[in-house]
Specification:
- The complex is a heterodimer of chains A (about 110) and B (about 110).
- In chain A, about 0% of the residues lie in helices and about 55% in strands.
- Chain A is built from no helices and eleven strands.
- In chain A, the strands form two sheets. In chain A, strands 2, 4, 5, 6, 9, 10 and 11 form a seven-stranded mixed β-sheet that branches. A four-stranded antiparallel β-sheet of chain A has the order 1-3-8-7, with no helix packed on it.
- Chain A is globular and about 40 Å long.
- The model of chain A has no long low-confidence stretch (mean pLDDT about 90).
- With about 110 residues, chain B is mostly beta strands.
- Helices cover about 0% and strands about 55% of the residues of chain B.
- In chain B, the strands form two sheets. In chain B, strands 2, 4, 5, 9, 10 and 11 form a six-stranded mixed β-sheet that branches. A five-stranded antiparallel β-sheet of chain B has the order 1-3-8-7-6, with no helix packed on it.
- The chains are: A mainly beta (about 110), B mainly beta (about 110).
- The interface between A and B is medium-sized, with 27 and 22 residues.
């Protein structure tokens, strides 16, 4: 199983809503990531979890709250988002050091904030 | 300051011909380079990579060339197929740490039948 599964595929939310994005992988990867991608732009790193602990937060606003309940799951909790937060949110994972040179991406959640 | 640049936003080639996608980087500390391919409504998928200790890596129809002195890499696809039509992202990292990858803006490749 070399898949990273993300749900939902599409999400429309208002600025006062609370929603969560979910990501799951069963490759035994201990590093998991959230990326944000705007149209015709490269993926931008938001958060990195290493061994279920947050290791990198790329100065992301607090309206985005990541959570790693266990080594296979990664969530991104959304609250009070702005229309400019509309984007494709990608989850990714990578293997251990020495094998961790490439990212395995999910298909993403296309988020629209109204 | 964009450390990884793909200066051609788009490229169109005929089926069967060679596609050459280019990437330039500014940070000489990068030691691992990757190409990802992305179809619409999907996440990027890993295509091919090269370590800075090599100047060429080949995998089937795909070959990546690295010119460290010029801080330039290129992806060659031979022969190009319509199914290769996608956005191609170049990425660079330190110490093969995927989490430190810096991506270029991408090149949209269209292969015409």
């Amino acid at each position: 199983d070399t898949e990273v599964t993300q749900t939902p595929k599409h999400l429309v939310m208002g600025m006062t809503n609370k929603k969560s994005l979910k990501c799951e992988q069963h490759m035994g990867h201990r590093a998991m990531y959230w990326y944000k991608q705007k149209a015709k732009k490269p993926p931008e790193l938001m958060f990195v979890y290493s061994y279920e602990k947050l290791s990198i937060n790329e100065s992301v606003p607090s309206r985005f709250s990541p959570e790693c309940p266990n080594s296979s799951l990664l969530n991104l909790h959304l609250h009070a988002l702005q229309p400019e937060d509309s984007a494709l949110y990608l989850c990714a994972s990578s293997g251990p050091r020495g094998q961790g040179e490439k990212l395995f991406f999910g298909s993403g959640t296309q988020l629209s904030v109204l | 300051d964009q450390q990884v640049k793909q200066n051609s936003p788009s490229l169109s080639v005929q089926e069967g011909r060679i596609s050459i996608l280019n990437c330039d980087y500014t940070n000489s500390m990068f030691d691992y380079f990757l190409w990802y391919k992305k179809y619409p409504a999907e996440g990027p998928t890993f295509l091919i990579s090269i370590s800075s200790i090599k100047d060429k890596n080949e995998d089937g129809r795909f070959t990546v060339f690295l010119n460290k002195s010029a801080k330039h890499l290129s992806l060659h696809i031979v022969p190009s197929q319509p199914g290769d039509s996608a956005v191609y992202f170049c990425a660079a990292s330190f110490n093969t740490n995927a989490g430190k990858s810096t991506f270029g803006d991408g090149t949209t490749l269209t292969v015409k039948p």
